[in-house]
Every structure is written in C-alpha cells, then in structure tokens.
Amino acid sequence: MTAAANYGQLTGTYEIDPAHTRIGFVARHAMVTKVRGAFNEFSGTATIDGDNPEKSAASVAITAASIDTRNADRDGHLRSNDFLAMEEYPEITFTSTAIKQTGDNEFDVTGDLTVRGVTKSVTIPFTYEGTAQDPFGNTRIGFEGSVVINRKDFGVTWNAPLETGGVLVSEKVTLEFEVSAIKK
C-alpha cells in the first residue's frame, strides 16, 4: 500500500483466521541452507483502536506440538526437551505491551514472547496489508511482519558441532507472521 489507511474504520476486535494465517520460522541448518517451518495450530485476537493505534493490543497462543517442517523425524526432535520441550511447555505465547505507528502503514508491536517458560520482550515490525470484505460478509484485515530472535535467549540451546566447523542449527531464528484476521 502506498497511501495511509483510514484506521478509524478499523476500530474493533478481530480474531485470527488460522486457515488464512501463517506463523512460521526459518533457521540455518548445517551452515549451508535454511529450514523453514510453521505452526499449524494457534489462536489470537487483536483489539484495534483505529483513532489511537497506540491503545491497540494483540495476543497469540501457539500449540508447540503443531510444529511442522515437513519432516516427521525433525519435528519429533523439535518437540523434544532438546528444543521446545512441548510436554512441559505446550504453548508459545505473545502478548503485546506497546504498539507504535512508525510509518503510514507500519507498526512496531512490542510484547512478551514466551518460549519454554522463558519470557523476553521482542519488537516485531508489522506492515498493514489492507482491509477487504470477503464473500461471506466478513471484514478482514491483513498484517505481515518478521523478527529475528536468538533461540538461546529462550533456553533452546541444543546443538551439534560439524566436522567442517560451525554448528548444525543456527542460534538466530527468524519468526514470520502473515496474519489475516476477521472482525467480530
């Protein structure tokens, strides 16, 4: 979008549409390639104050066991105590603590990200992608954003050294959000 949106029209409460939303991640593997994955089960809401975006809020809860990298063995390892320890920590959560408009359609959403029981503040830059009426009469909004975190900050420390130097899994992980939400 090139022009600023009329955010006043967006005021309301929205629920994330899991069928049209992707919450994913990217991590470097063996120092030579990237592994991409996503979480298939999550829920979330956003309360938007279009006239004063700083009063808006958002929260997301992700089922850790729903991790999907298209490889069953890898997914099993990621669910284990080496990584997400999903039996002890079944959810990954994010709750906003501040929202700041940084451009016509750009927002920094700062909040508490909790992984493996460790909570850290992260700021995710989001871009407002637009609003549409879907064929079912729902008002939809779209946002996209990403942020790089260090997995060790959240107690996810497992790794394996490579004979050629380096490690099997990068410490830096990019979290990716492509969100479609429906006005309630």
Automatic annotation (TrEMBL):
Residues 13-182 form the Lipid/polyisoprenoid-binding YceI-like domain. It comes from the Bacteria. SUPFAM superfamilies: YceI-like (SSF101874). Pfam families: YceI (PF04264). Signal peptide: none annotated. Gene3D superfamilies: Lipid/polyisoprenoid-binding, YceI-like. Belongs to the UPF0312 family. This is YceI family protein. It comes from Amycolatopsis acididurans.
